[in-house]
Specification:
With 122 residues, this protein is an alpha+beta fold. The chain has a single domain, classed as K homology (KH) domain (GMP Synthetase, Chain A, domain 3, 2-Layer Sandwich), CATH 3.30.300.20. The chain contains four helices and three strands, in the order H-H-E-E-H-E-H. A three-stranded mixed sheet has the order 1-2-3. Helix 1 crosses helix 3. The radius of gyration is 17 Å and the shape is globular. Its main location: cytoplasm. Keywords: Cytoplasm, Ribosome biogenesis. It holds the Pfam family RBFA.
Length: 122
C-alpha cells in the first residue's frame, strides 16, 4: 500500500486535531484515569478509514477504561474532525492501543540490567 503525500498530510492533521479533541473536549472520566497520547494515524488509500494509534499511561485497568471511553467518543471525534478539516469524506475512526513505547521501555530496562551484570532471564 503506497502512502501518498496527501495521505501523510491528512494523517498528521488528524493526529493533531484528535489529540486536541481528546485533551480539551472529550469529558469522559475514563479518559482521565490514564494519560492518553495519540501516537499515529494510518489512513486507507481512499481515506475512508483511519486507524488511530494511542498510547495510554497507566495500569491495565486504566488502559481498558480509556479504550472504552475512546470507543464511546468515536462518533463525537469523527464529527469534530469532519467540521475542522476540509475533507470530501470524513474517515471512519478505529482506535488501536499502541504498546511500542512500553515495549521499548521494557527493552531499555533489560539492557540496563545486562549492563549492570544482572543476567537473569525474563
Amino acid at each position: 500500500m503506497a502512502v501518498t503525500a496527501r495521505n501523510q498530510r491528512v494523517a498528521e492533521e488528524m493526529k493533531k486535531e484528535i489529540a486536541r479533541i481528546i485533551r480539551d473536549e472529550v469529558k469522559d472520566p475514563r479518559l482521565e484515569a490514564g494519560l492518553v497520547s495519540v501516537t499515529g494515524v494510518e489512513l486507507s488509500n481512499d481515506r475512508h478509514y483511519a486507524k488511530v494509534y494511542v498510547s495510554i499511561y497507566g495500569d491495565e485497568e486504566a488502559r481498558n477504561q480509556a479504550m472504552e471511553g475512546l470507543a464511546r467518543a468515536t462518533s463525537f471525534i469523527r464529527r469534530e474532525i469532519g467540521q475542522r478539516l476540509s475533507l470530501r469524506y470524513t474517515p471512519e475512526i478505529t482506535f488501536k492501543l499502541d504498546v511500542s513505547i512500553e515495549h521499548g521501555d521494557h527493552i531499555n530496562r533489560l539492557l540496563a540490567r545486562v549492563r549492570a551484570g544482572e543476567y537473569a532471564d525474563e
